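step: validate -> pass
step: tokenize input -> pass
step: predict -> running
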Amino acid sequence: MKIVAFTGMPLSGKSEAVKLAEDQSIPVIRMGDFVWEETKHQGFELNDKNVGTIANSMREKYGMDIWAKRTTEKIKKIKKTNLLVIDGVRNKEEIDFFKKELGNDFVVIAITASDDMRRQRAFSRKRVDDGATKHSFEERDKRELHWGLSGVIASADIIISNEKDMKSFQQHVQKILQQL
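step: predict -> pass
step: emit ->
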């Protein structure tokens, strides 16, 4: 089974790439779902601050690869498939854990977009953890960069720019998924 991990800064286009995989009936595991579940489990409201605090505190308490470990547990429960997608790898420790557990069948695809493009998407999408202000957007970026996201993006096996129109981006992602 080939396992593709999409990574990138918030609002770079990971969710759109994941949706394309889902539309092709490729199983998807969203790492952020584990953070959301833990946030609710600990009795906190789902918002950017709480989700970020829980993600960070769990990494501090259990290691930077805590979310990769939970993801791998779920992967092992999924029936065999040719291709599986992981959404949301954030740091080198997660990549190292996945490579150790999943071997050469693990591929990292980074989605990139400019800060201006991502800000526009944040204010139009309005997802609970996107941040409602410029300050909260910047704080989320700082938090994710602190976890090591820039290193993951820089070391990705494949990089896809999402600066053009949606159709071009979708075609590029679909082509890569088909090749894998």
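step: describe -> The chain has one domain: 2-179.
step: cleanup -> pass
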